Amino acid sequence: MSDATHDPRPGPWPSPSLEAYLERRSRVAASLRERDAALVLYGGELRTRANDTEFRFRPDSDFHYLCGLEEPGAVVVLLPEGDGGHRFVAFVRPRDREIEVWSGRRLGPEGVVERFGADEAHPLAELDAQLPRLLDGYDTVFLPLGRWPALDAAVHRALTSLRRHNRTGESPPRHLGNAEDLLGEERIVKDAASLASLRQAVDITAEGHLAAMRAARPGMHEYQIEALIEYEFRRRGSSGPGYGSIVGSGDNATILHYVDNRSPLGDGEVLLIDAGAEWDYHSGDITRSWPVNGRFTPEQRDAYEVVLAANLAGIELAKPGSNIDAIHERCLDVLCEGMASLKLIPESAETIRERKLYRKFYMHRTSHWLGVDVHDAGRYTLGGEPRAFAPGHVLTVEPGLYIAADTEDVPEGFCGLGIRVEDDILITADGHEVLSAKVPKRVDAMEAIIGEAHR
Ligand SMILES: [Mn+2]
Fold this sequence. Notes:
- This protein is an alpha+beta fold.
- The protein has helices at residues 18-34, 61-67, 97-103, 108-116, 127-135, 149-164, 179-187, 192-215, 222-235, 298-316, 324-341, 349-354, 443-454, and strands spanning 37-42, 48-50, 53-54, 75-80, 86-92, 120-123, 140-143, 175-178, 240-241, 246-249, 270-275, 277-279, 282-283, 286-291, 381-382, 385-386, 394-397, 400-403, 417-420, 423-428, 431-434.
- It folds into two domains: 18-187, Creatinase/prolidase N-terminal domain (Creatine Amidinohydrolase, Chain A, domain 1), CATH 3.40.350; 192-454, Creatinase/methionine aminopeptidase superfamily (Creatine Amidinohydrolase).
- The strands form seven sheets. It has a six-stranded mixed beta sheet, with helices on both faces.
- Manganese (II) ion is lined by residues 285, 368, 396, 398, 422.
């Protein structure tokens, strides 16, 4: 129990593999070397849910991306070295049999060296004593500025201590850099391991959506569908949803971040589900909208076809050199034409577009990066211009139409209707791959699945 090879978690760990993390650290170290910089990251903290109970721990995204550890309070330091190599130092909670009985197994410093490839590891309590020595001589220290006050404070203490001794030969770093940007620019192009994790997350997400399509019946409740989807995620080994699952039927679907999920599914309503499974702390993000009873009404179908056409037109533009703004503009074109032809707004498509009247029914942007975070890191603009897609980028395309039940001056059959169609798209060398293609989105294909389940 006290040996260094103690494994606090069954199954392959770190996941995806130690090699993947070593490769990431080499890449990040190379970029630090160019800047004569060291990097300090924090594992994050347990968050109180209420009184003395806590939410399940989820490590800081940049931290986990770099080392695969799931250690609250841990600090890791990445130090490029002159010879082209680097050193990776970790500070973690020490093994403690008595505490582990209560709050779970720990790796301890030995386990972090053994399993996670750290060059040195120390108990957390030694951070203040060791950090100045580690940062000494680098020009810049990168850390996620402002994200973790405890880490900000620890780095400041280290710098203060070095400044106090600089007349005796120590050279404190002169600059602080924001690790968020540094790591974001690494994370935006998915490496092989990241892409494998994301594919797994999206595949499991797809299974959850399919299970929901097969199970939903009028009279069931939104929470039952939520439970079913998340059961599907968990039973396939996902750590759970990567964000609060949105399961909204009828008018609830017109609330963009509806997470109450407690209404009955009405016969004749369209159910909107926006849910994604997490795998290796990468998240899928799929939205589908379909009729609870298996058949769209003519109005629902017309509105759905507009959103689907926007989704398909937007995805067509997902290729190297294109960008998120171009996709958004294309989706707006299709949505505005639809709003005019369905008479949701009694104006021409051009007027709806120019005067931004579409905002009444489509009030959000169309895309975001996807990865470790569901709204992933990485810049959206470079030099004031929308960032051009490159192979390895992953983004969503998610146009929608939201027509609240109390909307005046639209044909009755459109009221209380929310539709969004969201896919996860990988940019490839010559175009794209729809990672979420496993969940059908054509009307006949969705109606067939639901219809078959109802027979
Ligand atoms: Mn999304």
